[in-house]
Structure formats: C-alpha cells, structure tokens
Amino acid sequence: MVGNFIDLIIVFYLVIVILGGIRRKNSDLIPALFSVSMGLALSFLTFRFTSGLIGDNFQIANAYANVVGFFLNTIIFKLLLGYFFGILFVMSGVNFESDNLFLRRLVGVMLSLSYGLMTVFVMLSIFTALTLPGMMTAQLEKSTFGNFVKGDPIKANGRFEEVFGQILRTALNDFSFMSIKTGSEEKIDLGFKSLEVTEDAAEEERMLVMVNKERESRGLKLLTLNEEARQAARDYGKYLFENGVFSHIDLEGKGPAERLKNYDITFVMAGENLAYAPGLEEAHQGLMNSKGHRENILHPFFGRVGIGVIDGGSYGKIFVQEFLD
After folding, report:
1. What are phi and psi of 276, to 5 degrees?
2. How far apart are CA 230 and CA 146, in angstroms?
3. Which residues lie below 8 Å from residue 314, measured CB to CB, with a gap of 6+?
4. What is the mean predicted confidence (pLDDT) over 89-97?
5. Which helix (H) or strand (E) covers residue 214, if one does?
6. Which residue, of 49, 145, 202, 229, is most buried by count of CB atoms within 10 Å of its CB?
7. Residue 122 burial (CB < 10 Å; 0-12/13-18/19+)?
8. % pLDDT > 90, the chain
9. Is the CB of residue 147 less than 8 Å from the CB of residue 116?
10. 82 — phi, psi (to 5°)?
C-alpha cells in the first residue's frame, strides 16, 4: 500500500527503471546487479582506509572524508567488478537470453526491479542515517518504503549511520555562528524553509543568565524578563525559519521597533540581536565578539529583555534578543 508522496515517487522511479531495463540484455543486467551489490558491501569494509587518506592529504573533517571515501570506493568497485563479471559471464558461455520473448522480458523485469529496489533501499538508508529536520523525518515515517528501511530488515542501518550519521551535524557546526549587524537592513537567504521548529525555554533562561553575568561583571543593572518581548522574540525566530530568511527587517519591511509595537509593549528605546548557531554557547560568544551586539547586551539604558530560542533541529537554532529600556 502506497503511504505518501515519497512512495509515489519511488513507484514512479521503479516503473522507469523497469521500462528501461527490459530493453537491455539480461547478460548486461546481471553483471550490473552483482557489481553494485558487491561494490557496496566492499565499500562498507574499506571506506575507512580511503577516508583516512583523504582526510590526511586534504585536511577535511572525518564526516566529509567518510562520505567521499565511501562513494569513491563504491564507484571504483562497481567499475572493476562490472568489468570482471562481464568477462566471467562471457567466458562461462552461459546464455542468459531465452528464445521465449515473454520469459526473456520477465527475467528482465525481475532483474531491473531488483536493481531499482536496491537503489531505493540504499537512498532511504542514507536519509534514515542523516539527522533530518522533523518535517522530513515525519514524512519518511509515513512512507511504507521508509518504514520498511527504518525497521532495519538486513541489519545495515548501523553501517549507514557510521558513514553518513555525522555529516549534517558537522556541516552545521562548521558555520558555527552567523548574525546580522545591528541596525542593518541586510537580508540573508538561509537556503531552506522549516516549519517544524520548537521553542527552547530552557536555553532562553540560560541565555538570560549569561547576559546578566556579562552585565554584572561590569557593574551594570541586571535585565528583567519581559514576557511580551519574549513572545515577540519567539514569534520572529519562527518567522525567520518559516520564510528562510535572516534579517532584522521582515519581508513586509518592518523593523524590530515596529514589530514590538504589535505586542502592546511600551518603550522609548529598543534593540535587537539575532544569532544563528548550533548551540547556546556559540551564539552567546558570537554576539559578545560582535561590537554592535555586545553594545546592546551591555547598554546601560536597557532594563528589560525578551529572549526567544527557536530550535530548527538539524538546521540549528535561531536566537532573538529584544532589549527594552
């Protein structure tokens, strides 16, 4: 039974593979099937060696080297084994082409379907190994094919996790910290949109403690939490994720002060800090290392703050600080 659009895409792909496969000779399909399956198995056994060479010579993170090493080995083994099996089948003299057209086509369909299913299984196993955002994970869980692969029927999920499990986390950590200059109208396209986000109240509280420690160490009055500003910060963090942008100015052209007025907040002065980072420590340190953001955190006229921390899963977190007098 087809579960969702992922299953429909897979079924469409399998139909295309079968239609293409029945036009090929069975003597070509059999070596291809053997070479790919054995190539993958050998790649799992040897990718560490290749990734070690890549990491040592090109100075790249292990997570990237593992993936490159695995795919490089898969391609090499596929080519070598395809050539080997092709010669072996020719030398064996076995005729894989039946004189019966129906039987020949039936064997072609079965071989093509096997090749297509193996490809689907590998791709879904890779997606399962990745730490995907909640929305994508939910879609995989609704998929009949996805659920089958997630059940680890051939006990291979651990292998895929070993190769692909860290690449998204490493990529996320590599950008470490991103922010927009205070008062700037610059807009950054995040390159994605995420509707599956959550509020992280615990980190909001921790960030307030960090901010107040910075102020206390300099003899400044501590900031008090303003619930309306906190809600404004949370809403804007979600807005940025949902629209795939990162900016102090929203898509309607409104800045921080205009947005805050929508929450019935009275103020004379207001300031906003934005940070996009994997975690709280990176975000706080990045803001303190930035002149404009540090000035907001340490401004003597500010007495209230609303902090919103929005967790986008594997996409990282957006931190919004709304400062008020």
Report:
1. -125, 115
2. 39
3. 130, 131, 132, 133, 168, 169, 172
4. 71
5. helix 201-216
6. 229
7. middle
8. 52
9. no
10. -60, -45
Q: For residues 165 and 251, give the distance between their C-alpha atoms in angstroms, rounded to a whole number.
A: 35
Question: What does the DSSP 8-state code read for residue 192?
Answer: -
State the burial class of residue 56 (Cβ atoms within 10 Å of its Cβ: 0-12, 13-18, 19+): exposed
Are the CB atoms for 310 and 200 separated by under 8 Å? Answer: yes
* Main-chain phi, psi angles of 115, to 5 degrees: -65, -45
DSSP state string for 78-135: HHHHHHHHHHHHHHHT-----S-HHHHHHHHHHHHHHHHHHHHHHHHHHHHHS---HH
What are the tokens at 195? 């509707």
pLDDT above 80 (res 42): yes
Which residue, among 253, 282, 257, has the nearest Cα to 179 in the 3D structure?
282
Cα separation, 193 vs 320, in Å, equals 18
Question: What are the structure tokens assigned to 41, written together?
Answer: 């198995």
For 81, the token pair is: 């084994």
Sequence-distant (6+) residues with CB within 8 A of 150 are 128, 140, 141, 157
Give the tokens for residue 264: 């019935």
- Torsion of the alpha carbons at 136, 141, 142 and 146, rounded to the nearest 10: 100
User: According to the model, what pLDDT value does residue 141 have?
Assistant: 80
The per-residue pLDDT for 139 is: 80
Q: What pLDDT does residue 76 have?
A: 95
How many residues are given for the chain?
325
Q: Is 35 helix (H, G, I), strand (E, B) or coil?
A: helix
Distance (Å, whole) CA 205 – CA 311? 14
Comparing CA positions, the residue from 136, 152, 249 lying closest to residue 195 is 136
Q: What angle do CA 308, 288, 167 make, to 5 degrees?
A: 70
